[in-house]
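Trying the structure run again after the queue cleared.
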Amino acid sequence: MPSLQQIIDANPEAETFRFGDSKALCDRILALVRAGTKTATCEAARHYGPGGDAWPEVGRRDVALEWDGRPAVMIETVAVETRRWSEMDADLVAAQGEFRDLAQWQQEYRAYFERNGGWSEDMKIMCERFRVVEDYAGGRR
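Done. Tokens:
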């Protein structure tokens, strides 16, 4: 398995990130990504821009990390958009692969956003669809 530095050297445009805000959540989400069940994700738009993460860009490849910082998978952004909380729909919820329905998504994401800077009914959310390019535990896709 290549080191994170080797991956970044070969992909200088790549951002690195972790799914979730705990080891347990990160592990659960990475399992869904690796299984092909999760092909979309969301984050509060406030986490991007000056002083934050770079906004995802269609075609850019980024590296999702294991909780301990080891490279897990490389993903490629295939679509990105901004929505308000109230604009989430069942199609994007299903693509996230984690939730039974929109109601469960709202419950779990509200708690996540409240733990990570706050939640509001009109908050802006970055919605990204992606594909796995390489799984560093299991090889190329």
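The chain is about 30% helix and 30% strand. Worth checking whether this holds up in the mutant runs.
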